[in-house]
Amino acid sequence: MDYKQELANFFGENCRLNEPMALHTTYRTGGPAEAYVYPATPEEWSFVLKIARSFDIPLHIIGFGSNILVGGKGVGGIVCSTKRMQGLTVEDGHIKAQAGTALDKVCEEACNAGLAGMEKLSGIPGSVGGAVYMNAGAFGQETFDCLEYFDAIDLEGRPVTFLKQDLKYAYRHVEGIQNYIILSASFQLAKADFTHLIQTRNTILHKRLEKQPLEFPNAGSVFKRPTNDYASRLIDDTGLRGLTVGGAKVSEKHAGFIVNFNHATPEDIRQLMQQVRQKVKEKHGVELELEQILWGEFK
Length: 299
Description:
The chain is α+β, with helices and mostly antiparallel strands. The chain has 3 domains: 3-81, Uridine Diphospho-n-acetylenolpyruvylglucosamine Reductase, domain 2; 88-196, Uridine Diphospho-n-acetylenolpyruvylglucosamine Reductase, domain 3; 215-295, UDP-N-acetylenolpyruvoylglucosamine reductase, C-terminal domain (Uridine Diphospho-n-acetylenolpyruvylglucosamine Reductase, domain 1), CATH 3.90.78. 29% of the residues lie in helices and 28% in strands. It is built from 8 helices and 21 strands. The protein has helices at residues 3-11, 42-55, 103-112, 128-134, 143-146, 194-211, 231-237, 266-284; strands at 15-20, 32-37, 59-62, 68-70, 75-81, 88-91, 94-98, 115-116, 137-138, 141-142, 147-154, 159-163, 169-170, 173-174, 180-188, 190-191, 218-221, 244-245, 248-250, 257-260, 293-295. The strands form 7 sheets. A 5-stranded antiparallel sheet has the order 6-7-15-11-12. β13 (169-170) and β14 (173-174) form a beta hairpin. The longest helix is centred in the last third of the chain and has 19 residues, at 266-284. The radius of gyration is 20 Å and the shape is globular.
C-alpha cells in the first residue's frame, strides 16, 4: 500500500489527496499537496511521523499559510495542518494556546483579561505555532517578548519543552527548532488597564486596515527589515510601487507587500520578488532578504 492510501485509511475525512494549496495559503495560489492531513492528537502525529520516516518523504507543517508561497507544481510528501489544534486558557497572568489557535485570538483574550504585552501583535494573520516558529512581530512587539516556553515534538514524536531562556532568537528567526513541531505555547503577561489595552488593540487594527493592502490576497511583508532601514522605503525609493508581473503586483498601498490582484500564479509572485530584490540591489546596494517561505517546485 502506498503512503497516501495509508494516510487516507487512518485519517478518513481529515486527509485530502492532491489538495490545492491555493485553498490554504493567504496568497490564494499554489499547486497541489500530494497529501494534506489534519493531525491533532499525539497518536495522529506519531502515525504521520512514522509514515514520513518509513517512506522517506518530506513533511511540511502549516498553520494559516500566511507567510508561505507554494510553487505551481505543488509540494511533495505530506503537509500537516495545525487547524484542528485550537484552544487557549488564561490563568494568573499566563496564556497557554495550542499551535493552531489564531495569534490574534490570543491578543484579543489577553486584552480582555487586562494582560499587556501582546496587544501590538493584534491583526497578525498567522497561527500561534507559526508566530513562535519565526518570532513574528509588528509595531515594535515580537512573539518572543512575552513567550515563556513552548511544547513540541521532534521528528521521532518525542515530546520536548523549550524554555525561552534556552533559545537563541532574533528578528524573525529562532535558532535550532527547524526539526521540531510546535504543539502549544505559553505566554507570561503583565497586569494592565483593560480600557487602555483595548484602545491600543483597536488602534493597531485600524492602522493595519489603513496602511496594508488587506483587500487583496497577500502574505504580509515580503522581505525582512534591513539593518537601520525599511524594505518598503527602499522598494518605494527604487520606484517599484505598482510594478507588476502577470497577476502579481507590488502594492500601491504598502510597497513592502506583494498582492495577488488578478489570479497570479506562484511563478508571477516569485518572479516579482526576484525583480524587486535585483532592482533594489542595483540602486541601493542592499540585498533584501526574503521573510516569506517558498515551498515545493516552481514551473
